[in-house]
Write a structure and sequence with these properties.
The chain is built from 6 helices and 13 strands. It is an alpha/beta fold and 247 residues long. A hairpin with an 8-residue loop joins strand 9 and strand 10.
């Protein structure tokens, strides 16, 4: 049995806790505050998680694409040759598990394990000394001690909840006439994502991590999109990564 510290209580952090518990390890979750993360974008799990979801999917998602991948890349990154997720998911139906449903279950199960602790580049050494494995899902720049590059792109999201029953759909757009680049309806929540500020007031802004060259804290396992600070990191990757590390 290993002593595991998980930094962050968002979906990635609690999935890491779930993997540690399933492996029979002693774990502690630390976070600067006890608060659920606000999730935006097309949030869903691509596969079942043992002990958390049913094997039968929560629903089916229809993926469609408008235009070309080069147009999509230019919209999102300003470079038509930039790698994008466009080609990772084929047009058609896909099995999905709802991330909001899974996160609610994780929160109920593990929120009492969360300890309030200010994690910074000055306290990371102390944490590492007390645990066999430290898994960080917090934004990596927060504990970088300087000299490294963290790249990101801006994103603006409009979100609303629908009433009734609606099909799950996700559309990628590489067309100039569409101001958005991705639009999804998942579990009756609509998310519309823009690379430029949308012509309305009902949005919130943020960033999407894309790349970093940080080599700080080599003994820490960086997990999740914010911890790894990379594009293309899917939520269920955390569960697989932690499970493998603790075998």
């Amino acid at each position: 049995m290993k002593k595991v510290c998980i930094i962050g209580c968002g979906p990635s952090g609690l999935l890491a806790a779930h993997a540690a518990e399933q492996g029979g390890h002693k774990f502690t979750i630390v976070s600067k505050e006890l608060r659920k993360s606000v999730m935006g974008g097309a949030m869903y799990l691509h596969e079942a998680i043992p002990g958390l979801t049913e094997q039968v999917p929560d629903g089916q998602l229809y993926i469609e694409k408008r235009g070309m991948a080069t147009g999509y890349a230019k919209k999102v990154y300003g470079d038509e040759n930039h790698s994008v997720s466009w080609n990772l998911f084929a047009t058609g139906m896909h099995r999905i598990w709802y991330m909001d449903r899974a996160y609610n279950k994780l929160w109920r199960r593990y929120k009492d394990h969360v300890k309030i602790h200010n994690v910074s580049e000055h306290t990371m050494d102390e944490i590492i000394r007390h645990f066999d494995l430290v898994i960080a899902t917090m934004p990596k720049p927060a504990v970088c001690y300087g000299g490294h590059v963290f790249e990101s792109v801006p994103v603006w999201i409009r979100q609303r909840r629908l009433t009734g029953i609606h099909s799950n759909t996700m559309t990628y757009s590489g067309l100039e006439e569409d101001p958005w680049y991705r639009k999804s309806t998942i579990n009756n929540v609509v998310n519309i994502e823009y690379a430029q500020r949308p012509p309305s007031d009902d949005y919130y802004g943020g960033i999407k991590p894309t790349r970093n060259n940080c080599t700080c804290w080599r003994r820490v396992m960086w997990a999740g999109r914010w911890g790894r600070w990379e594009k293309g990191v899917l939520v269920h990757h955390v569960y697989q990564q932690v499970k493998h590390a603790l075998q």
